[in-house]
Amino acid sequence: MKILLVGYGTMNKRVATLAEENGHTIVGAVSPTDEIDCPYPLFGSVNEDLPEADCVIDFSHPTLTKELLRSGLNVPMVIATTGEKETLLALMDEKATEVPVFFSANMSYGVHIVTQLLETIAPLMDDYDIEMIEKHHNQKIDAPSGTLIKLLDAITEKARPDAQTVYDRSQVTEKRDKKDIGISTIRGGTIVGEHEVLFAGHDEVISIKHSAQSKDIFARGALKAAEKLITKETGFYTYTNLGV
Q1: Residue 92 pLDDT
Q2: What pLDDT, in 10s, does the model give residues 36-86?
Q3: Which H or E element spans position 58?
Q4: Which domain holds residue 40?
Q5: Of 52, 59, 95, 187, which is most buried with the most CB atoms under 10 A?
Q6: Do 125 and 177 fall into the same domain?
């Protein structure tokens, strides 16, 4: 499989290494900034004359992802960028009328399983308060994480459509509202990524937690999605319908 990388930060560097270890070829990387350590042909824009590729893997920034989705590039696309969710989803839906497009806010298959667990469990937990905690390294710029939003959506869509998200209780002097879903964000050190959902009931707490021990799980997930996506017809795909 010939892969074009969009973005050449930490994640796509891991994608490149694992891709080559598994017999794939990186044909180039698109990055608007100079990457002096990039061993592949480097392009400043997706609108340049790019090399032929079987698939694009995008771990970048919403600005670059929007440029990609609005471009004339017509190859299967694995999108892993988070931020500006509604805008990107609308553009992905439009692009999916031309090429197969896969999106996940977290490329870990384990997070996909946690999402399914929450979709099953949340409707059974009406009498439980929900609190969500996410932890990441000190270089992450968005908060809360795209993964937490993905997990929150699973809960609100299946069980709590009237939920009120609460990000800061420091200025509140009243008891917790039944509709609240508390969200806590932690940034520090080199934490790869931890997400925990607490269901707190009367005299008991149920916790569902996912801990990423290496960024390789996201790179492997993207490659696995790409391998499957290039066999698919035009359309929009997630882990739910890709058949991984």
Answers
A1: 96
A2: 688 999 998 998 889 999 999 999 999 999 999 999 999 999 999 888 888
A3: strand 55-58
A4: 2-107+216-242
A5: 59
A6: yes
Residues 129 and 94 occupy one common structural domain:
no
| DSSP output for 23-44 | T-EEEEEE-SS--TT--S-EES
Element (H, E) at 145: none
CATH number for 168:
3.30.360.10
Name the domain count of the chain.
2
- Rounded to whole angstroms, the maximal C-alpha distance in the chain is 62
Catalytic residues: 136, 140
Residues 134 and 155 in one domain: yes
Residues 223 and 102 in one domain: yes
Answer yes or no: do 73 and 194 share one domain. Answer: no
Nearest Cα to 150, choosing from 241, 60, 240, 59?
Answer: 240
- The length of the chain, given as a count of residues: 244
Q: Residues 148, 129: one domain?
A: yes
Q: For tokens 């017509």, what's the residue? A: 74
Task: Give 66-107 as a 3 state SS string.
Answer: HHHHHCCCCCCEEECCCCCHHHHHHHHHHHCCCCEEEECCCC
CA proximity to 185, closest of 166, 199, 171: 166
- The model's pTM is 0.80
> With DSSP H G I counted as helix, E B as strand and the rest as coil, what are the percentages for the chain, rounded to 5?
30, 25, 40
* Per-position b or e across 209-220, b if 16+ CB within 10 A of its CB: ebebeebebbbb
The C-alpha atoms of residue 169 and residue 77 are separated, in whole angstroms, by: 40
